Amino acid sequence: MSGVRIGLTGGIGSGKSTVAAALQDCGAVLVDTDAIAHALTAPGGAALPALAEAFGADIVADDGSMHRQRMRELVFADASAKRRLEAILHPMIGDEATRQAAAAGTLPVVFDVPLLVNSSHWRRRVTRVLVVDCDETTQVQRVVKRSGWSEDQVRKVIAQQSPRAARRAVADAVIHNDGLSLQALRSEVQALWRHWFETLRSRAPGV
């Protein structure tokens, strides 16, 4: 699948990271925008000076990283804070994602983008959109188990994300990750990869 660009998205707790790893096992290069965002806001991260200027010095934690809990509270309480945060981070994330994709050369690339549905820019960059979906109850159970957050905290995060129906509406394929074992989920990814490979291979070069 030379030159293919796949956009991967899904809500918190959907299993998107597991699907991303399975796509890597199939031969794709992963460009993880969440990981890029974490690097930008880690101690010494390139986004920290602009964040401190926009939100105040107390947005920087004692270890020199962005204070994630404090930022989360700001974003939940004030929609304008979310817009200011995105205005700082999104261009920097986009630049680094472009650099990583270029470094992949002709290998297939998977862009893991939680906000893909909200961005026509990202949808224009990809050949296919893959959505990982599951019931909200499943999302809550998974995130509470792995993170220790309260159910209320998880539901607040879900409410900030794109609705499930909106994600499915832009999808070329949807993996329904409710009740699947890890092996079954990987098998679905592999089957989809083979299907897309055959479809794209039959089309003109460069498509």
Explain how this protein is built.
With 207 residues, the protein is α/β, with parallel strands linked by helices. It is built from ten helices and five strands. The protein has a five-stranded parallel beta sheet, sandwiched between helices. Helix 7 (136-147) packs across helix 8 (151-160). The protein is globular and about 50 Å long.
Oligomer: single chain
Largest sheet: 5 strands, parallel
Order of helices and strands: EHEHHHHEHEHHHEH
What's the Cα radius of gyration?
18 Å
Strand-residue fraction? Answer: 5-15%
- DSSP helical segment count: 10
Count of beta strands: 5
Q: Determine the fraction of residues in helical runs and give it as a percent range.
A: 55-70%
Structural class: alpha/beta
Q: Enumerate the strands of the largest sheet in spatial order, edge to edge or round the barrel.
A: 2-3-1-4-5
- The average pLDDT is 91
Could you outline the blueprint of secondary structure elements for this entry?
Layout (H helix, E strand, L loop, with lengths): L4 E6 L5 H10 L3 E4 H9 L6 H8 L12 H10 L1 H25 L5 E4 L7 H6 L2 E6 L2 H12 L3 H10 L3 H6 L3 E4 L5 H20 L6
Parallel strand pairs: 1-3, 1-4, 2-3, 4-5
